[in-house]
Amino acid sequence: MVLGLIIWLVIGGICGWLASLIMRTDGQQGIILNVIVGIVGSVIANLIFNREGLNAAPLSVTAFLWSLLGAVILLAIVNLVRRGKVR
């Protein structure tokens, strides 16, 4: 249980950080926000695209890519709401 939580935090942090690099918002966010964006993006992508449930293996390449896509979409929505445009 604890190991699974740690894995989700690490994968979420990596996905959030990569998404912030892709969306060019890395200078505006800290590590905590990167982890939150990565985890929330992962949950959103899993619910919308994957349909395997939230307990799917976080270490597969496809799950990582879906999580990254979800984090990028989440950052695009946040940028749209904040600034009125997507970078």
Structural write-up:
With 87 residues, the protein is an all-alpha fold. The protein has one domain. The protein is built from three helices and no strands. It has helices spanning 2-22, 31-50, 61-83. Helix 1 (2-22) packs across helix 2. The longest helix is centred in the last third of the chain and has 23 residues, at 61-83. The radius of gyration is 12 Å and the shape is globular. The relative contact order is 0.19. The model has no long low-confidence stretch (mean pLDDT 77).
Radius of gyration: 12 Å
- Which sheet architecture does the biggest sheet show? none
Number of domains: 1
Structural class: mainly alpha
Proportion of residues in β-strands: under 5%
Q: Which term fits the overall shape?
A: globular
Number of helices: 3
Overall average residue pLDDT: 77
Distance between the termini: 38 Å
Number of strands: 0
Question: Uncertain runs with pLDDT below 50, 5 residues or more?
Answer: none
**Order of SSEs:** HHH
Q: Helix fraction?
A: over 70%
Can you tag this structure with a few keywords?
74% helix, mainly alpha, 87 residues
Write a brief structural summary:
This protein has 87 residues and is an all-alpha fold. The protein contains 3 helices and no strands.
